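worker-03 picked up job from queue 'complexes'. Input manifest follows; two sequence lines, order preserved.
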Amino acid sequence: MSGFLELAISGLMSGLVIGLAALALTLVFGVARFANAATGDFMTCGAYAALLGFGATGSMVVGGAVGLAAGALVGMVSYLLVFRTLEGRPSVSALLASIGIGFVIRAVLGVVYGHGQQVFQLPLVRPWRVYDLRIQPNDLKIGITALVALLVVFLVLHATPIGRRMRAVADDPMLARVSGIAPRQVMLALWALSGAVAALAGVLLGIKTVVSPEMGWEMLIPVFAAAVLGGIGHPVGAILAGVLLGVLQEIATPYVGFTYKLALAFVILLAVLLVRPKGLFGRVEGVR
Amino acid sequence: MDAYLIAIAIITAIYVLLALGLNLQYGLTGIVNFGHVGFFCVGAYTTAILSEHGVPLVVSFPLAAVLAMAFAWPLGLVSIRLREDYFAIVSLGFSEVVRLVATSERWLTNGVQGIAGIPKLFAGWLTGPAQSYAVLGLLVAFNALAILAMLRIVRSPFGRMIEAIRDNEEAVKALGKDPAGFKIQVLVLGAALAGLAGAVYAHYIGYISPEQFLPLITFQIWMAIIMGGVGRISGALVGAGILMLFLEGSRFLRDVMPFISEVSMASVRLGVVGLALILFTMYRPQGLMGDFTRK
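worker-03 finished. Artifact:
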């Protein structure tokens, strides 16, 4: 039983990472109306930047901040250089371009850092024992960080002027424009937010596992599955769906084997698209 | 040198076959298939595994195409009605799952070690250069057949229908036609071409492993058809040629500049494919062979 619970906790942690990345995906999807396939590579950027910051200062907090800043920067740069031009074109163009951006990011990281795996050299901490359960203090910190990040994104969306404008653009771009909202500024803020959230997911994933140029790309299918399951454009849904997916993946591991984790995400994605395309909490659009 | 040129021509012809399939799907019908390599992989493994068990090529070859179709059909059935970007991600996931199965079902595919010693085509009758010429001839025949078939398709009611679906699916629906049915047929046809390409590839290279079927291949083909010109048969030819020039050129570049490691060269190739995808979708969506007067 405690083994089962430990799997569930571990699933909760990886689910929070998936959920954060799904949040980054859904933020852009809800407004720009295309699936940003470079979301995973934004994660990788964040992880490598955090590695750099962590190596220079030895502080994980500074490392994380550097990672977030790098993610936000990459998000804004890709918007300014690529996605701004592609606005109004068929969503396939933006999708293809985002695949291209992901390739370029992976290529740059691969040339600079090589394809080896790197780790955050964090001190080992003895796990806490709660009754039969072993709980890693690091897991707890990761969980708290993810929850705080969710809270911050939620506050930005619902308690700041720029967040209100974002939601307005997401609801109806034309109406927002007529009401005097400058779309460029809103989009820039949105891409920065999405990039930072993705980067945070990358940093947490890097702490939990290892950092490599492909780490984010390999997360794309589960992340997309979580975003769809949560309902596109629904931030809380993305996180909850991510957690659900993470826990399901971990609990299923003893039955389907480690390698078929990804296949499970794929099956869930298909099932959701077939049965309930607007996701668990979807409300924005019933289009699939 | 001769042998080298023939080898290049054979690989190019395989890419052309892949590009023709994707061009039929995306260029003519507007299906955003990000999982093309999955069908290529199914074709390659089908014929490799069958040959391993002594099934003659005459049987295993068509079966490669048939099995690729058999994979495409259910995929189309469950997901072709999705919005195009959703289908794109689903098909990408499909190709990754295919690769995952090829990696982990060791009893069937020998896992990451892959399958070696796949018999060469025409091995019993021909040897040396003559054999390579024969393989090339076979590929040219396949491509010619595929191109002829496509030319026929474009001029047929079916062709007009799929082009109408690409241009305006809602209008097609309003006319009382079922776009999904046509799209599934096109998906299956394109998969058959990819499966065939996979079969030739497996028998030509003689060794396959899951590592050869990364999504990168899919996007290289995408780069080829976008550069060549979407929806044009000449586009598939030109695009595959450019792709080959680029892949082989980068190999020569490494001969000239040996200080670049093979691993970084792979990264550079990845980056160039990415850049090409970005720049062409942004500035020349109609491709090199497309209408020059249009922006």
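worker-03 released lock.
The two ends of chain A are 39 Å apart (CA to CA).
Chain A is about 75% helix and 0% strand.
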